[in-house]
Amino acid sequence: MAIRERLIEYRDGSTLLEGFFCHDDSRPGPLPAVLIGHEWGGRGDFVERKARRLAWHGFATFALDMFGKGKRGTTNAECSALITPFVQDRALLARRITAALTAVKELPQVDARRVGAIGFCFGGMCVLDLARSGADVRGVVSLHGLLKPTGLPQGKIGAKILVLHGYDDPMGPPEDVLAIARELTAAGADWQLHAYGNTRHSFTNPHANDRAGGMVYDEAADRRSWHALLQFLDEVLR
User: Fold this and answer.
1) Torsion sign, CA atoms 83, 15, 74, 122
2) C-beta of residue 165 within 8 angstroms of C-beta of residue 142
3) 3-237, what's its fold?
4) Number of other residues whose CB lies within 10 A of the CB of residue 73
5) Which of these, 118, 98, 94, lies nearest to 106 by C-alpha position?
6) pTM for the model
7) Which residues, in sequence order, are bridge partners of residue 192?
8) What is the pLDDT of residues 13-61, one digit of tens each?
């Protein structure tokens, strides 16, 4: 096994973006690919570690960039300011993540017919919106994602969808879970939802320890969601 990684610049219009690409070049290609959407602080170590783990399982992985090359948030206020334009303009969000999909499909190591996407927190919203947009992806996975609908016209959803969610997530309360179930059913999607009891937001991030803000790591939910994620990716991309 020889895991290779590099940074790749790409663009959404005039905005320069930088993704983290990772793959095992000892495997015969082209490889099935997984886009990875980051949390509200921007592309960093958390999603890059996920990219390496999935590359070990035989996927070409691309930790995408929603904010622009080098743009990161370190405080809650900075992170909120970074995601606000995309939360308020979901068409912009869909266009920005579609730029990442276009970039990864052009890579010679990638089988453009076998691409999926996963996302954490804000990244969960991003990959759900990618599916909602009708993009050519086989499946998407939201992990403790933001579940609010786009408010934009929506047709059929062709991508398979897996939602991995903490039932006690204050940023995606039970009413949001019920709402997205109705939305995906109405859109004719092939969808699954795993709700983890006594589990809050950011349950996959070992550094999450903000009980007052509802962001708490949960080892059991992290382990269970990872197994569910791998099973889903094997189903839709192999």
Assistant:
1) positive
2) yes
3) Rossmann fold (3.40.50)
4) 18
5) 98
6) 0.97
7) 162
8) 999 999 999 999 999 889 999 999 999 999 999 999 999 999 999 999 9
